[in-house]
Amino acid sequence: MKKYVKVLLVCFIVCALLTGCTGNTRAQDILYQVSTLDALMQGVYDGELTLEELLQHGDFGIGTFDALDGEMVILDGTVYQVLSSGEVVQPDLSVTTPFAMITQFNTDIQSDVSSVSDYNKLQETIGSLLPSQNEIYAIEIHGTFSYIEARSVPSQTEPYPLLSEVTEEQTVFEYKDVTGTLVGYWCPEYLSGINLAGYHLHFLSEDYTMGGHLLECSIENAAISINTVTQFQMLIPQNEYFLQTDFGDVTEQEKQNVEQ
Ligand SMILES: [Zn+2]
Protein backbone atom coordinates (compact mmCIF):
# COMPACT_ATOMS: atom_id res chain seq x y z
CA MET A 1 0.00 0.00 0.00
CA LYS A 2 2.79 2.40 0.94
CA LYS A 3 4.55 1.65 -2.35
CA TYR A 4 1.32 2.35 -4.26
CA VAL A 5 1.02 5.76 -2.61
CA LYS A 6 4.63 6.53 -3.47
CA VAL A 7 4.08 5.67 -7.15
CA LEU A 8 0.96 7.87 -7.21
CA LEU A 9 2.92 10.71 -5.62
CA VAL A 10 5.71 10.44 -8.21
CA CYS A 11 3.12 10.41 -11.01
CA PHE A 12 1.50 13.50 -9.54
CA ILE A 13 4.81 15.40 -9.30
CA VAL A 14 5.82 14.46 -12.88
CA CYS A 15 2.43 15.57 -14.18
CA ALA A 16 2.63 18.84 -12.26
CA LEU A 17 6.11 19.54 -13.65
CA LEU A 18 5.03 18.77 -17.22
CA THR A 19 1.98 20.99 -16.94
CA GLY A 20 4.10 23.75 -15.46
CA CYS A 21 6.49 23.58 -18.40
CA THR A 22 4.07 23.26 -21.28
CA GLY A 23 0.66 24.34 -20.01
CA ASN A 24 1.29 28.08 -20.03
CA THR A 25 2.48 28.97 -23.52
CA ARG A 26 1.89 32.69 -22.96
CA ALA A 27 4.75 32.68 -20.47
CA GLN A 28 7.09 32.14 -23.42
CA ASP A 29 5.90 35.23 -25.30
CA ILE A 30 8.50 37.56 -23.85
CA LEU A 31 10.07 40.54 -25.55
CA TYR A 32 13.63 40.80 -24.28
CA GLN A 33 15.17 44.22 -24.89
CA VAL A 34 18.74 45.41 -24.40
CA SER A 35 18.82 49.02 -23.20
CA THR A 36 16.42 51.75 -24.36
CA LEU A 37 15.93 53.45 -27.71
CA ASP A 38 16.32 56.77 -25.90
CA ALA A 39 19.83 55.67 -24.87
CA LEU A 40 20.64 54.98 -28.52
CA MET A 41 19.25 58.41 -29.42
CA GLN A 42 21.65 59.93 -26.89
CA GLY A 43 24.68 58.16 -28.37
CA VAL A 44 25.03 55.23 -25.96
CA TYR A 45 26.53 52.88 -28.57
CA ASP A 46 28.77 50.70 -26.39
CA GLY A 47 27.79 47.04 -26.66
CA GLU A 48 26.33 45.58 -23.47
CA LEU A 49 25.52 41.95 -24.30
CA THR A 50 27.12 39.45 -26.70
CA LEU A 51 25.05 38.07 -29.57
CA GLU A 52 25.52 34.63 -28.07
CA GLU A 53 23.85 35.82 -24.85
CA LEU A 54 21.17 37.65 -26.80
CA LEU A 55 20.22 34.51 -28.73
CA GLN A 56 19.40 32.78 -25.45
CA HIS A 57 16.27 34.97 -25.39
CA GLY A 58 14.77 34.08 -28.76
CA ASP A 59 15.15 33.57 -32.49
CA PHE A 60 13.55 36.68 -33.99
CA GLY A 61 14.51 40.32 -33.58
CA ILE A 62 16.11 43.61 -34.57
CA GLY A 63 18.73 45.97 -33.18
CA THR A 64 22.19 47.31 -33.82
CA PHE A 65 25.79 46.45 -32.96
CA ASP A 66 28.61 47.79 -30.81
CA ALA A 67 29.55 51.32 -31.96
CA LEU A 68 26.32 51.44 -34.04
CA ASP A 69 27.93 49.26 -36.72
CA GLY A 70 24.91 48.63 -38.98
CA GLU A 71 21.38 47.27 -38.68
CA MET A 72 20.60 43.92 -37.03
CA VAL A 73 18.11 41.34 -38.27
CA ILE A 74 17.60 38.09 -36.34
CA LEU A 75 15.65 35.52 -38.32
CA ASP A 76 15.24 31.83 -37.47
CA GLY A 77 17.92 32.14 -34.79
CA THR A 78 20.61 33.60 -37.06
CA VAL A 79 21.96 37.14 -36.63
CA TYR A 80 22.52 39.19 -39.79
CA GLN A 81 24.39 42.48 -39.90
CA VAL A 82 23.52 44.97 -42.64
CA LEU A 83 26.62 47.15 -42.91
CA SER A 84 26.49 50.77 -44.10
CA SER A 85 28.05 49.57 -47.38
CA GLY A 86 24.90 47.51 -47.92
CA GLU A 87 26.79 44.24 -47.51
CA VAL A 88 25.07 41.66 -45.29
CA VAL A 89 27.29 39.49 -43.07
CA GLN A 90 26.80 37.01 -40.23
CA PRO A 91 28.77 38.55 -37.34
CA ASP A 92 30.78 36.56 -34.84
CA LEU A 93 28.63 35.75 -31.79
CA SER A 94 31.21 37.42 -29.52
CA VAL A 95 30.21 40.79 -31.04
CA THR A 96 28.14 42.87 -28.62
CA THR A 97 24.94 44.91 -28.97
CA PRO A 98 24.00 48.24 -27.33
CA PHE A 99 20.32 47.90 -28.34
CA ALA A 100 18.30 44.90 -29.47
CA MET A 101 14.81 43.41 -29.24
CA ILE A 102 14.36 39.64 -29.40
CA THR A 103 11.46 37.19 -29.10
CA GLN A 104 10.87 33.47 -29.52
CA PHE A 105 8.50 33.81 -32.46
CA ASN A 106 5.26 31.81 -32.48
CA THR A 107 2.53 32.80 -34.93
CA ASP A 108 -0.77 33.82 -33.28
CA ILE A 109 -2.33 35.71 -36.21
CA GLN A 110 -1.75 35.22 -39.92
CA SER A 111 -3.01 36.98 -43.04
CA ASP A 112 -2.09 37.15 -46.72
CA VAL A 113 -1.89 40.52 -48.42
CA SER A 114 -1.36 41.68 -51.98
CA SER A 115 -0.79 45.01 -53.73
CA VAL A 116 0.07 47.13 -50.71
CA SER A 117 1.13 50.46 -52.21
CA ASP A 118 3.31 51.95 -49.47
CA TYR A 119 4.50 51.71 -45.87
CA ASN A 120 1.57 53.80 -44.59
CA LYS A 121 -0.90 51.39 -46.19
CA LEU A 122 1.07 48.45 -44.79
CA GLN A 123 0.82 49.96 -41.30
CA GLU A 124 -2.96 50.33 -41.74
CA THR A 125 -3.17 46.72 -42.92
CA ILE A 126 -1.17 45.38 -39.98
CA GLY A 127 -3.14 47.65 -37.64
CA SER A 128 -6.42 46.10 -38.78
CA LEU A 129 -5.07 42.69 -37.70
CA LEU A 130 -3.92 43.72 -34.22
CA PRO A 131 -6.42 42.93 -31.44
CA SER A 132 -5.31 45.93 -29.37
CA GLN A 133 -3.08 49.00 -29.51
CA ASN A 134 -1.89 48.21 -26.01
CA GLU A 135 0.05 45.02 -26.49
CA ILE A 136 3.47 44.40 -27.99
CA TYR A 137 3.49 42.44 -31.25
CA ALA A 138 6.35 40.77 -33.09
CA ILE A 139 5.66 41.03 -36.82
CA GLU A 140 7.09 38.93 -39.66
CA ILE A 141 6.14 39.72 -43.26
CA HIS A 142 7.49 37.33 -45.86
CA GLY A 143 6.87 37.83 -49.55
CA THR A 144 7.64 39.66 -52.76
CA PHE A 145 8.25 43.36 -52.51
CA SER A 146 8.07 45.52 -55.62
CA TYR A 147 9.95 48.24 -53.74
CA ILE A 148 12.03 48.48 -50.58
CA GLU A 149 13.80 51.56 -49.25
CA ALA A 150 16.05 50.74 -46.33
CA ARG A 151 18.94 52.37 -44.53
CA SER A 152 21.99 51.47 -42.55
CA VAL A 153 24.39 53.47 -40.42
CA PRO A 154 28.20 53.43 -40.23
CA SER A 155 30.26 52.42 -37.20
CA GLN A 156 30.95 55.40 -34.89
CA THR A 157 34.00 56.42 -32.88
CA GLU A 158 34.09 58.06 -29.45
CA PRO A 159 33.03 60.62 -28.45
CA TYR A 160 29.81 59.26 -29.95
CA PRO A 161 27.53 61.70 -31.79
CA LEU A 162 23.74 61.71 -31.23
CA LEU A 163 21.75 59.26 -33.37
CA SER A 164 20.03 62.19 -35.13
CA GLU A 165 23.48 63.39 -36.27
CA VAL A 166 24.42 59.91 -37.51
CA THR A 167 21.21 59.38 -39.48
CA GLU A 168 21.85 62.62 -41.38
CA GLU A 169 24.67 60.66 -43.02
CA GLN A 170 22.85 57.31 -43.28
CA THR A 171 23.16 55.26 -46.46
CA VAL A 172 19.81 54.61 -48.15
CA PHE A 173 19.34 51.54 -50.35
CA GLU A 174 16.59 50.99 -52.91
CA TYR A 175 15.66 47.47 -53.97
CA LYS A 176 13.13 46.51 -56.64
CA ASP A 177 11.24 43.23 -57.09
CA VAL A 178 12.93 41.47 -54.23
CA THR A 179 11.77 38.48 -52.17
CA GLY A 180 12.49 38.66 -48.48
CA THR A 181 11.26 39.23 -44.95
CA LEU A 182 10.37 42.22 -42.82
CA VAL A 183 11.23 41.58 -39.18
CA GLY A 184 10.10 43.85 -36.38
CA TYR A 185 7.66 45.03 -33.76
CA TRP A 186 4.67 47.14 -32.85
CA CYS A 187 5.19 48.88 -29.52
CA PRO A 188 2.33 50.60 -27.65
CA GLU A 189 2.32 54.25 -26.64
CA TYR A 190 3.18 53.51 -23.02
CA LEU A 191 6.58 52.10 -24.07
CA SER A 192 7.59 55.38 -25.72
CA GLY A 193 10.04 56.23 -22.92
CA ILE A 194 12.07 53.11 -23.57
CA ASN A 195 11.25 52.29 -27.17
CA LEU A 196 9.53 53.74 -30.21
CA ALA A 197 5.72 53.83 -30.10
CA GLY A 198 4.51 52.30 -33.36
CA TYR A 199 6.14 50.10 -35.98
CA HIS A 200 9.84 49.35 -36.28
CA LEU A 201 10.76 46.95 -39.10
CA HIS A 202 14.01 45.76 -40.66
CA PHE A 203 14.32 44.04 -44.05
CA LEU A 204 16.36 41.01 -45.09
CA SER A 205 16.27 39.55 -48.61
CA GLU A 206 15.73 35.83 -49.05
CA ASP A 207 19.25 35.41 -50.46
CA TYR A 208 20.68 37.30 -47.43
CA THR A 209 22.43 39.91 -49.59
CA MET A 210 20.22 42.99 -49.01
CA GLY A 211 18.60 44.58 -46.02
CA GLY A 212 18.38 47.45 -43.56
CA HIS A 213 16.06 49.53 -41.38
CA LEU A 214 12.82 49.93 -43.37
CA LEU A 215 11.92 53.44 -44.57
CA GLU A 216 9.45 52.69 -47.39
CA CYS A 217 8.05 49.68 -49.21
CA SER A 218 5.40 48.35 -51.56
CA ILE A 219 4.26 44.75 -51.52
CA GLU A 220 3.22 42.51 -54.37
CA ASN A 221 2.25 39.47 -52.29
CA ALA A 222 3.11 38.62 -48.72
CA ALA A 223 2.13 36.64 -45.65
CA ILE A 224 1.90 38.61 -42.41
CA SER A 225 2.53 36.62 -39.22
CA ILE A 226 1.99 38.21 -35.82
CA ASN A 227 3.10 37.02 -32.41
CA THR A 228 1.38 38.59 -29.40
CA VAL A 229 3.93 39.38 -26.72
CA THR A 230 2.63 39.21 -23.16
CA GLN A 231 5.74 40.03 -21.16
CA PHE A 232 8.49 42.62 -21.42
CA GLN A 233 11.97 42.22 -19.97
CA MET A 234 14.76 44.78 -20.27
CA LEU A 235 18.47 44.74 -19.60
CA ILE A 236 19.60 47.98 -17.94
CA PRO A 237 23.12 48.69 -19.24
CA GLN A 238 25.85 49.02 -16.66
CA ASN A 239 28.33 51.05 -18.74
CA GLU A 240 29.29 54.61 -17.75
CA TYR A 241 27.75 56.18 -20.86
CA PHE A 242 24.32 54.81 -19.98
CA LEU A 243 24.59 55.44 -16.27
CA GLN A 244 25.62 59.11 -16.74
CA THR A 245 23.25 60.04 -19.59
CA ASP A 246 20.45 62.57 -19.07
CA PHE A 247 17.39 61.12 -20.79
CA GLY A 248 15.20 64.18 -20.21
CA ASP A 249 16.11 65.66 -23.60
CA VAL A 250 14.72 62.94 -25.89
CA THR A 251 11.34 63.73 -27.41
CA GLU A 252 9.03 61.30 -29.19
CA GLN A 253 9.12 63.54 -32.29
CA GLU A 254 12.91 63.28 -32.49
CA LYS A 255 12.69 59.50 -32.29
CA GLN A 256 10.03 59.37 -35.01
CA ASN A 257 12.24 61.58 -37.21
CA VAL A 258 15.24 59.30 -36.74
CA GLU A 259 13.40 56.00 -37.13
CA GLN A 260 10.74 56.81 -39.73
ZN1 LIG B 1 15.88 50.04 -36.97
Automatic annotation (TrEMBL):
Gene3D superfamilies: Hypothetical protein, similar to alpha- acetolactate decarboxylase, domain 2. Residues 1-27 form the signal peptide. Coiled coil: none annotated. It catalyses: (2S)-2-acetolactate + H(+) = (R)-acetoin + CO2. Belongs to the alpha-acetolactate decarboxylase family. This is Alpha-acetolactate decarboxylase. Its EC number is 4.1.1.5. Pathway: Polyol metabolism; (R,R)-butane-2,3-diol biosynthesis; (R,R)-butane-2,3-diol from pyruvate: step 2/3. It holds the Pfam family AAL_decarboxy. Keywords: Acetoin biosynthesis, Decarboxylase, Lyase, Signal. NCBIfam families: acetolac_decarb. It comes from Flexilinea flocculi.
